[in-house]
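Trying the structure run again after the queue cleared.
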Amino acid sequence: MILFPAIDILDGKAVRLHLGKRETAVVYGEPAELAKKWAACGAEFLHIVDLNAAFDNTSVNDDIIKSIRKAVNIPLQLGGGFKSMDRIKYCLEDVGIDRAIIGSAAVTKPDLFKRAAELYGGRIICGVDERNGKVSIKGWTDDSETTPAELCREIKKAGITTVVYTDITRDGALSGVNVDKTFALQKASGLNVIASGGVASVDDIIKLKEKGIYGAILGKALYTGAIDLIAALEAERGRI
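Done. Tokens:
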């Protein structure tokens, strides 16, 4: 199991949102400094989200993302605003991001998604963001008619092996991760599933690990102190 400390960037700052709503943003500091902090604690992979790209389709945070890449030597996965091959190529080849998380475009631009998967293979993963049984798109501002299971079947055909599954109703709520839904999606799809949304305690991590879940994203719980990253990594590695 892999733990992914999250750094969500809005207007150049690291923030956390509640249920994905922009107006709830709370600022927690400088993204590159937080990246160094999580790496120093032993994180093996970081999860970065460019919220401006997701909400506004802008690239105002590119210099911040580059600063994170320069600050740490561990792999980075980036989500937010991947709507063109030029953008995917820029982030993966020019910036040096290790994995691109494509969410909305997997639903709205399936040909683009398939092309990216053909070119970059395992460096493309899919963001499956669920609200009320449907996949949410456009920075969680709209819901599609596609279910998570349907989307997973389609992306698997394109050779995708890994998804980030977010239960939006729990994101930033510290209400506990939806272990059952996460496990059901991983079992039904045969894909590696990274759990996102609601991870609130080390106990959540242990439950996910016991179910054989591939990974978990740690967000608000890290920033509020509800989870200590060193203790979480100890749990993930089976030491507690």
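The chain has a mean pLDDT of 92. Worth checking whether this holds up in the mutant runs.
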